Amino acid sequence: MASRLAEDLRAVLKGQGLPVLDYDCAPAKAPPVPVQLRKSVSYIVLAVFCNDQGEVLMIQEAKRECHGSWYLPAGRMEPGETILEALRREVKEEAGLECEPVTLLAVEERGPRWIRFAFLARPTGGILKTSKEADKESLQAGWYPQASLPTPLRSHDILPLIKLGSQYYQQARHPPTLPQELPCKFICQRLIATFTSAKNLWVLAGTEGILHLPIIACGLTSSEQNSSIVVSVFRLLQQCLTLTQVTAKTQGILGLQHLGKDQADGICLNVLVTVAYKNPDDLHKPPEIQGIKFCWWQVKEEDVQSQLLKRLHDVSVVPIHS
Known about the structure:
alpha+beta
C-alpha cells in the first residue's frame, strides 16, 4: 500500500492526473452532485502571450458592455470541450492566431461555480486580426509593450497575470503544467498535505481502502456557492487535526485534471498544503491525528522526498487565487 502512495506522489509531482473514484470529505449540508458546464459551473480560459521585445498580445473587445476596451484573449468554455481546446478556440476567434499552451500560470476562483484558468501560450501560426476583420468576437488584436498597454482596459485584473506571464517567460518558477485529460464528476481537490521536520517529511493519507491522497469534494448548494475552494481544505483538516495548535497554508497547485467531451465536466486540483505547529518547539513529529480516517505517512523514498522538498522550498507551484 505504501508503494502505491509513493507512485501516486511521483505522478502528482510530474503534473499528472489520477483517477477520482470517491471522496474523503464533502460538505455537511448536501452531498456533492455531478457538475454541468454552463448550467452549474462556469469555466473561463485566458491566454498570456509574451515576446522577446517585452510585448504582450492584447485584443480589443467587441461586446456591447465593454466595446472598445482592451483585454487578454479570454472566454468561456463550451460544453464538450477540453480546457486546451477552449483556449485554442478563443485565441483563434479573438486574435486570429493558432497557439500552443506553454504552462498553466494561475487558477482563479470565486467559489466552485466560477473558475478561470490562465495560461502562458506561444503563437504557432495564423494571421493577427486587424480592424478589417472585426467581428462579434473582437475588433482587433495587437502586440503592445507592457509599460504602455492600450487603454481603456476592460479590467485591471489582467495586470497581475501579465506580470506572472512575463516572469515565467524570463525564468520558469514551476515545471510546465498542463491539464490532464481524465474524467471527474465533481469540483474537487486532491490534498498533498505535508509536515516537515529537520530530517523527515510526512504526507497526510486517507486510510479507507488502500492508503491514498485525500480527496475533498466541493459543494454547489446555494449556501456554499460563494465559499472559496481553498477554504474547503480546512473542512478536511479540521476533521483530523486540532487546528488551534497548527497552521495550514495552501501553497498552490501541482496539477489539474478535466476531460469534458460530454463525459464529465468536473475538475480535480492537486493542491500542495503545508502544516506546521504554531509552537516552534514542537518540530520533531507531525501533529496527532484525530479519528481513524486519516494518518501521517512518512516519505522514505529518496526521489519522492527530494522532489517534494524542492517544490516546497522553491514554492514551485501554480498559484491559486481566491
